[in-house]
Amino acid sequence: MNENESTRHPHIAAYLQHLAAERRLSPNTVYGYEHDLLRLVKTLEENGKSMADAGSTDVREMIVKLRKQGLSPPSVARNLSSWRGFYSFAIQRLGYTHNPSIGLKPPKFKRSLPETLSPDACTQLLDGAKSQTTDSNVLLARDYAMFELLYSSGLRVSELTGMNLLDIDLKTGEARVTGKGNKMRVVPVGRQACKAIEAWLTWRPTLLGGKDTTALFISQRGTRLCARSVELRLDRWAARSGLGQSVHPHMLRHAFASHMLQSSGDLRAVQEMLGHASISTTQIYTHLDWQHLAKVYDTAHPRAHRKK
Description:
Strands 1-2-3 form a three-stranded antiparallel beta sheet. The termini are far apart. By secondary structure, it is mostly helical. The protein has helices spanning about 5-10, 10-20, 25-45, 55-70, 75-95, 120-130, 135-155, 155-160, 190-205, 205-210, 225-240, 250-265, 265-275, 280, 285-300, and strands at about 170, 175-180, 185-190. The protein folds into two domains: about 5-95, DNA polymerase, domain 1, CATH 1.10.150; about 120-250, Intergrase catalytic core (hpI Integrase, Chain A), CATH 1.10.443. It is elongated and about 65 Å long.
């Protein structure tokens, strides 16, 4: 929030500070809350009301207004969630007497399933590009180690780029990860990923050029890699693998989750490894699992063929 807006809306500024400092949400997430709250307060001010004065009718009318403006149901749901969170904070910290968003439901929408890859596609992606690259051995080793680790441990790209040398233990096959909200968790690292990382670590000093950096994965300049660089390298790697589709890092996280769930059926374990705060977030992968099972059933069962 800029300084002028902070001055005009100190309660919103206090909430954003709470999100950033106490809940340790990312700047992009805090910005999203800011955008949603300013949208509400602007409409309330146009109607001669403050955030503290708003009632459930005002919030309900705001939901209708957003839909008429063409905002998608998931976006309206996100706005309502932002408002609800602000009012819960305002009641606890700012002396507000009520939460006008309680009891209101967002428009219904069908939750889209995340893009993922089959086990065979992951094998082709990880192994198919190594013989097709013209990159130096050091970049080949680095990229292969990154992508094996993403798939092996279900990491977010920000978690991958944030890892330090001391965060990974190749002897035990474990890595310490800092996830959303600065929460720490320990994840397993598979045998193939350990071998790839071990190979990368033998090449890593050639990129340092005398610099002393703690980052596990570094650029050709010897600095910590950024998320965008990983995205570009992975898409380039996918093109060389002959997979025939664009691949982004989060697809490997989705693939990890769905393949683990298909094999184990242990939703709680997958939740823990992904670092999801709520199991409802992990449950989306049960739908991916069901899609897989339904496809197998329709293909294999002699009386399952459906009329077209």
